[in-house]
Amino acid sequence: MIVLEASFVKSATTAEEWPPADRPEAAFCGRSNVGKSSCLNALANRRQLARVSRTPGRTRLLNFFDVRVAERTRSGGRGPVHALRLADLPGYGFASGPREERERWKEMIETYLTRRAALRTLVVLVDGELGAQPSDVEMVRWAASLHKKIVVVATKLDRLARTRRPPQLEKISARLDVQRERVIAFSAKERFGVDEVWRALTGAEA
After folding, report:
1. Which tens digits make up the pLDDT trace of 11-34?
2. Share of the chain above pLDDT 90, in %
3. Model confidence over 158-202: pLDDT tens digits?
4. Are 170 and 181 contacting, i.e. CB atoms less than 8 angstroms apart?
5. Which phi and psi angles does 116 have, rounded to 5°?
6. Is 137 exposed, middle or buried (0-12, 13-18, 19+ CB in 10 A)?
C-alpha cells in the first residue's frame, strides 16, 4: 500500500465531539501497552502521527485520524485509492488514574462501539509475545455480538524467534476463536504485517 495522506483529525470524549461519519471507520483497541500507537504510526508511515507513551494507560480520549491509501499495482504503480478514518481507543485492562475516570473511559468506549454508524471494522491488538488474555477474548466476543468485521493483529512478534511465531499465532487464533487468516503477524519495529493490515482494512487483494 502507498500512504497518500495521514493526518490527525481530533480527539473526543462524547458523541457530540465525534467527527462527521463521512467515511468508513476502523477502531483500534487492545490492552494497555499493547502497542496501538506504534502500530498506527507504522501503518501511516509516520513517526509521530499517534503519540507513543512509555506509561500504560495514557490514552484517555478517542483519537481520530484520516488516511488515504492507494493499492500498489504489480508494476509498482498506484492503483485504487481508499479513504478511511482510524480511531485509537483507550487501552483496556491496566490503566492509570482514579476508578471514576476509568469508568468514564469504559462508558466512552462502549458508546462509541455501539453507536458509531461509520464503524466497520474492529482491530483487536494482542501482544504476540504474551498471547491472548481474557480481556482480549472478551473484546473479540463483544465485537462479534456487534456484527463488526474483526481483525486481530499480533504485535511485537519481532520479540519471538521466527520458528515460534506460527505456533503462537495458532494459539492466539484458537484462544480468540477466530479464523487463523484473520490473525496478522505484526511488528512496528521490523515493519512486517503493515500491508496485510491495510489489505484487511480496505478489502484489497494481495
Report:
1. 998 899 999 999 999 999 998 889
2. 62
3. 999 999 999 999 999 999 999 998 999 999 999 999 999 999 999
4. no
5. -75, 110
6. middle
CA separation for the pair 170, 205 (Å, rounded) = 23
pTM: 0.88
78 Cβ contact partners less than 8 Å away, ≥ 6 residues apart: 2, 70, 71, 72
d(CA 129, CA 155): 8
Residue for grid cell 496485510? 196
Widest CA span in the chain: 54
- Spatial separation of the C-alpha atoms in residues 206 and 194, rounded to whole Å: 12
3-class secondary structure per residue, the chain: CEEEEEEEEEEECCHHHCCCCCCCEEEEEEECCCCHHHHHHHHHCCCCCCCCCCCCCCCCCEEEEEEEEEEECCCCCEEEEEEEEEEECCCECCCCCCHHHHHHHHHHHHHHHHHCCCEEEEEEEEECCCCCCHHHHHHHHHHHHCCCEEEEEEECHHHCCHHHHHHHHHHHHHHHCCCHHHEEECECCCCECHHHHHHHHHCCCC
Cα-flanking dihedrals φ and ψ of residue 67, to 5°? Answer: -135, 150
Neighbours of 162 (CB within 10 A): 8
Name 17's Cβ contacts closer than 8 Å, sequence gap at least 6: 10, 11
Q: Which amino acid is at 26?
A: A
